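= Tokenised fold =
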Amino acid sequence: MASNPQEDAERIRLKRLAKLQGAASSSPSPAASTSSTPAPSSAPKKAAAPLPVQKRPAETVIAAPSPVPLKKKAPVVAAPAALDLPVWEDETVSAVFNVTLKKEVAEKSGYEVVWLKNLADELQSEGLSLQLSGEVADRILIARLELDPQGMSDDLDFLPVLASLPSQQTVLEFLIGSWKRLNTARSTVLRKNYTPLQQQQATDVLDKLRDLIISYTGLTLQEPEMFPQPSVTGKEFGAQELVPSFMSLSALSGPYLSASSSNLLDSSEIELFLQDLVKRFEPDGELDSVLGPVVVKLCWHESLDVGFASGDGWRGIISGLEALVSVKAVANMITRLPEWNPDVTAPEFELKSLMGRLLRLGVFHREWPSIASSYFSNHETRPPGELSSATASLRGTLKTLQTSLFQVLNTLVRASPSARESVLQFFARAINLNRRRAGMQVDMLTVSSDCFIMNLQIILLHFCEPFMDGQYSKMDKIDASYYAHSTRIDLKEETRVNATNDEADAWTKENAATTAPPNFISDIYYLTLAANHIGQQKIVNSIEHLAREYDDIRRHIEAIQGDNSWRGTPYQARTEATINAGKAEQDKIYAAQLAYETQLGEPELVFRSISFANLVSTWLIRHVDPRKQHPNTLVDLPLPKEVPTSFRVLPEYLLEDVIEYYLFVIRQSPKSLELSGKNEMLMWCLTFLTSTWYIKNPFLKAKIVEVLFYGTWNWGEHRNVLTTLLNTHPMALKHLMPALMHFYIEVEQTGASSQFYDKFNSRRNIAHIFKVIWNNAAHREALTREAAHNSEKFVRFVNLMINDVTYLLDESLSELAKIHEIQTEMKDRATFEAQTPQYRREREGTLRQLERHASGYVQLGNSTVDLLKVFTGETKSPFMVPEIVDKLAAMLNYNLEALAGPKCRELKVQNPEKFKFNPGQLLSDIVQVYLNLSDQGEFARAVAADGRSYRKELFEQAANILKRINAKSPDEIERLRLFVVKVEETKATLEAEEDLGEIPDEFMDPLMYTLMRDPVTLPSSRVVMDRSTIKAHLLSDIKDPFNRQPLSLEDVIPNVELKQRIDAFLAERRNKNTAYDVPAEDLVHMDVS
């Protein structure tokens, strides 16, 4: 085979060098005469050891004025070995191909050396020698390849040759064996001390043989049936034969390899073999057809069909793929294959794309049910620690797979610009084909599997690592107008953050790219965003669906077991079978949940996902930050009213997925946020809660509050992770309280059909957050500022809070009364059992429904009343505005009657803790609201004016209950008594106004605005008040309410003259028997001892 021009030029250079060395050898210098040094090279070489038989003349040492080391003697080099090229060529060709043209040589070897009798006859007929050489190497190799061990011959001399041929050896095995023997021959030549000319001559022969072997290897890989192959049942020839060689690179893939054979390439030979194939076929553009089938066979190996459950064959495939892509030309070739990125449907893509079958490996139950059943079934009976050990083992396997796949794809990306583009196109097609995965109702048969998408997302997260540093140093390299500059990601059906599709299209046209396409960082960032939307977030929804299924089955089993009517009946066996089937299904669901948790809870994935969520949330804030400096300089809140169009047209899932992942990690793995993520999470929530007009979707805003709720909630083994931050972070101290109040108002109208229930869920979360931060003075000061500077909004907030308490308490107490009724009915077992089965079932069903409703209403009511209690304790004036105070008083009076009136016994239910119903605590909270506002005259007037529910006897009964359960202190009971006295006096005052007209202002208490009964003068401020009013005030505050000077009840000065005038005024009134006709101590009866 002809050599290429580069080889010819190198050969001429070496020949010239040899001539120069030959001329130099005629010099009498002993060193020169023994030198066999080739052309000088840049690398230093070790000197050869001197030969003892060769004497050298002593060298004269010239004295020097300064002591210097003596020169070492030049090493003695052996004389060049003689090379008889024809003989060597004959022996080498024979050894490489294991053939001979001479019968006697074959006979002497027992026909282990193959006698090419037909070729020998041809050569003799042409008058050529029977000596093997490179000149006839092509004919020699063809003659050997054409021999068929199963062939027949009438030539008796030739029969031993056919009989001695390896019966199972394939053409490719022979060629690889020849290639390996060729490498051995080359190593031998290099070790020999031939002259450069001789060495070059030998190398030329070997190169010619190598070209032949590699050429025919390529042909065999393309056309395996070109030469006779052995008859082996089930044996696949050609590309498939190389697969075991690549899989053997992993020590753990043994079960999937054929029997060991010396013809298989070992790890030290793979790279050289690939380089030889590349050198021969890449220039001609034939590498794809030569190595392409090998790559396809490797990536679609049958071992991938069993996944992790039955072995480690996948490891061998990964190892082989790593070896293939390590050669740059092969890496480029792989991305050119039609199987790399086929145009097929989503479910076919993971089976027909080159990397698809590797990417679909995993542990999720839908694709690999045997994993869940093998590792996680029967969890209740397994030894402790076995499940955690299984989880750790599977996580290690997943990590190895995903890291290796990333290394392969990363090598492809770095191979060339075209290869990088092919990888990006592969990612984009996989994502765009699976857009439907993000829908609420998805037919999983029409999309790719969870495992495939999850692995794809994890690999993309690996690619993101270089720009996910904590300082966000590369954030500005992300193209903010990517969706206008690239069509890689399909957004046709995507909802935008706060824009219509027409607005988004217009923005895209205005910002269309006019320069180079987006950089690699931008491509990876936006592809990862898209993959996350159809990957992890969708899988989290699947986990939650499984949890609901598990709970439904649990409740069903509990309902069956709670109904004993089937026991001892013909239906008992069937019912027990139903219970057992339900428990088996529960175990199956739990195993599936653990399989999901194995992947989604893997610590490195969690850390990487948190880092990505932090990056996205910070990038989004910087996107809307007018200074574009966040987080180096924190964004100013609230944001400007004008929302940037580039933000409005973003796909809504960018925000949704950040919120959803924060929710997931804060519920499932809150400890993971200890290292990083809390600050970013808080800033994200504050930014868009203080500027809710940036987001159109009300559900996304509600989920931001939900993130804060879970971040401040302790449950099970999970410790809250945001409470400390909410009480220390400057931005939280400044903005959290007004932001939550604003959203409390906004959530009243969401526009959704479920807004009535949505608002209560959000407000429950807000109430909990308020409770958590309430003890912080800075937050209470923020509330006071909001009430003072934004009074209109605060009054709206208060009004909604009162509406909620009114509705929730009414509903919860009503439901509890109905539960009490049914439980009382069922308590009489004899009467209840006498009813028809249908009637009993209906009543039991009604009871369960009421219990579910009551539990929700009671908890929401408790949290809202608690919120009302703390707010009225901190700021009072907003509750005293005319449109609020009457409504508040009526609501409190109504619920006081329900909890302390004659019908309160109807609220007694079995297991009240099941509903979180604590009537004593609820009564105490409502009374505390009265106490908080007891020094407000307008409030006393509103309570007194409520003709529907107010009666002083209710307060007396409430005080008795609270004292009995030790819910209020004696001082608090006394304050309540004094308040009711004031209410009674106010009521009398209102009646007196009707009888006597206007009462003189000097007779009215300045705080409660009631007619004073026992006026006293405060010593420092000189203000005149009713004794009962100042007494109630001093129970909670020992200072003069008008100048804040210290004050005690003993210090007040009775105003006798004014009292006489008031008594005279009252004596003239027309109506008798009012509160003013009874001594104050006898007006309201409460035991405060």
Q: What stands out?
A: The longest strand covers residues 1015-1017. The two ends are 117 Å apart (CA to CA). Residues 1-6, 8-13, 15-68, 258-263 have pLDDT under 50 and may be disordered.
